[in-house]
Amino acid sequence: MTTIPATTTGRIDPLSVTTGFERDRDEFTRGARAIVVYPDLGGSSRDAEARLEETTGLAEAIGVLVVDRVALRIRTPRAATLLGSGQIEELATRARMEEAGLIVVDGSLTPIQQRNLETALEAKVIDRTGLILEIFGERAATAEGRLQVELAHLDYQSGRLVRSWTHLERQRGGFGFLGGPGETQIEADRRLIRDRMARLRRELDQVTRTRGLHRERRQRAPWPVIALVGYTNAGKSTLFNRLTGAHVMAEDLLFATLDPTLRQVSLPGIDKAILSDTVGFVSELPTQLVAAFKATLEEVVSADLLIHVRDVAHPDSAAQKADVEGVLADVGVTETTPVIEAWNKLDLLDGDARDDLLAEAARRDDVVPLSALTGEGVDALVRHIGDLLTQGHVRYTLALEAADGAAAAWLHAHGEVLDSHVEDDRVVYEVRMSPADHERFLTRGE
Fold it and tell me: CA 280, CA 428: separation in Å to the nearest integer?
């Protein structure tokens, strides 16, 4: 009887749903020699070399050893194999010469194409979606993250039970007095996967409700929420650590951050705000992951301000920006949410490239050039965030009893105290705050 393993505290292994999955997963191990293939169908905003570079980084992020990479121009995609026969022969030769047992295709493959390519190349084949899911499966650290990744992985694998695992062809007899023709092993596996996915969705629904309650409590409090968003490896976690003094994992590594992290920060005119570090985006992010991580990404949707961290030293920075904006639109972020672009990695630019970038940034009021690594420009970003969040604040003059320390603390926590002086045994404060906070202050004791 095929069983579905329960979620463990270690790495999620959705591929172990069946013994065929287990055997398949064993072939995909750290240190595997791989060839990265970019099937160039035309129409991409990135050039072939940039795509190969990114996919190589994705593969290396989980310990795969990329020994060769090649772009193949495809004029007419083949329904059975995607690639032409000559291209398959060339790729098979490369795989034999490099002793590569893994072919990473930077594109989407149908289950039939994946199976046929594995047969023709005599090597394991994984497409871009499968590769990203592998990375997420390895990086998910929290219970919520593991649930989300497992759900996405099972959704992806549910359509791929047509692969060449012979045990899936076995016929199962009926049980007890029911008799009947029974069901094939592949049908049983699909049913088990559906049942498992249904349970995961129920668990994630509970997570969504809990996260929603936390979000409602934050929204009732007068603390603005700021979310860092951006392409993977753009430097979000480095900037997060710089702004908060936290020690979130920040490495030159794709998808170093999966689970959202929230910290309190102080800003000019705002004693307390919540800063959120979120998962990085990538081009052609699998739809399964966008759906599975919806609860996490809702933190972005409900934010008062988005900081779009961009790697301006990357040659595909403009295309990466378009990819991020596409994902934000998919998850429901509207144009009414204010956005500041943090043009990061300024330290990697010099000469004319740096001067041109700074000149362009100076012409825009929604851009702050900076280096999260060195700290250059970070103070300017903090001031810009404070200015944006305090727009519409009004200067008020408020007189308090000298002994009313609680009221004074409230003013410091919810507004910007510009001045204070003693007048007739009372303390007079000049405070800039939002009209809503001023109204709350006047009615706080009612």
Answer: 47
Who contacts 213 (Cβ-Cβ below 8 Å, separation ≥6)?
A: none
What six digits make up the tokens of 434?
A: 């939002």
* C-alpha closest to that of 149 among 290, 31, 26: 290
- Cα(114)–Cα(95) distance, integer angstroms: 16
CA-angle at 153, arms to 151 and 154, nearest 5°: 65
- Give the confidence band of 164 by pLDDT, cuts at 50, 70, 90: very low
Residue 170 is encoded by which pair of tokens? 């076995």
**Distance, CA of 321 to CA of 300 (rounded, Å):** 16
| C-alpha separations of 176 from 142, 173, 179, 180, 191 in Å | 42, 10, 6, 10, 20
pLDDT at 112 exceeding the cut of 50: yes
The tokens of 50 are what?
């940039």
Separation CA 79–CA 85 (nearest Å): 12
**353-384 per-position pLDDT tens digit:** 999 999 999 999 999 999 999 999 999 999 99
